[in-house]
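Appendix B. Chain record.
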Amino acid sequence: RYAYVLAFFAILLLACDLTLLAGAPTKPTVIIAAPPSGARATAGSEVEVQSVATDAQGIARVELWVDGNLVANSPLLSPQTTYNVVQRWTATTPGAHTLQVRAYNASGAASDPAVISIEVVPTVAQTTPPGVILTPTAAREPNASPPPPSPARPAPTAPSSRRLPNPTTVIRKPATPFPPADLPFHIDCSALDPTWLPDCNLYIANTRDLVYPILRDITGTSLSQCYDAVYYKIVPDEQLSTHQGEANKNQILYSLRATLNFAPLPLYDSHEILHTISTFCNHALDNHVFHSAIESHIDLTLTGTSTWHYPGRDLTANWVEKKLIPDIRRNATPQPDSRHITTDPPCATLFENLVLILYYDSGIETIKRLYRATINPDPNVVPNAQLSRLFGPQARQYQVVVNALKQNSKYPIAVPECGY
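Structure tokens predicted for this chain:
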């Protein structure tokens, strides 16, 4: 009964890309969450700019501009409907500076810029420790903002230099170690400059020794049941022009910009390997429904933060209510654009975000039980008519998810357009 589903989604999930749906391109939205406009930074310190970008088609990259100059470009591993990113700028010149953040969706549409001003004060004048950003009593706006950067200006597809060591991405071992990997992991970085070899080795070691054991514990699935080994290949960015990562059974292909050179993300894979487990091995519900929750848990376990790819609980709920649900009610089942591979219909994106909220509200043990319940769903679970219409042979798996989500009394919403 899964043969048709596996054949269909094996093709769709190769790109692992939230891509353009039919209809006119929409404009993404982006806000700067920190620092506040008018904040002060000491000369020579590093300013961390945290922004949240949203778009129904999927955010493809976020840019940070300072005084009209591009200083940071953050492409996504695969476009996400909500993207929370921290970008860094070294404040070297005293005075007022204008910071702009722009987001681009999968179709190339640019957001209106989110703009703040930062005042850089000389080191000798500081009265607080170096690098501390202060919130002033009154925000100071510059006299005039520079014109926004033109979307037509070519943007780099990868950071201009190699990732720098960043203490926020130090990986820590779980407090309770999991049993080691039960099959070998191989990595091929032969297409890259040899100077990348140390990072390649660390990337595969972290994925094998830390990430995979956590995934095996959550999913209840050992890849050794399906394969003799897992093979990664990391290639120059231009070799993956339309997407940044893909999984085909136990073969995983990644771009340089999405792995070794994607600061500030830590050096490991928790995305494509989850596709390898779910789509090609245990046949659990995929469509990215569990990705946000499981990847957030892995990030929190290994780095202390759960917001590398996904925002916190309140930002997610706000986006679901203010943006995603209204979009679904306008057009719950758009036809895919023939130019793109559509992996996630809007209702699947809704369930991904609801499962992420469930993780924040109930913890990983709840997600673990729910994920495993979709592997061989109880035949007594009967999907409702709308789920059957939207998801066909996978409707029973979605009904299992719906039944669990309805138990989350902390977040009671109803979206009948998605069978929820």
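Further analysis of this model is presented in Appendix C.
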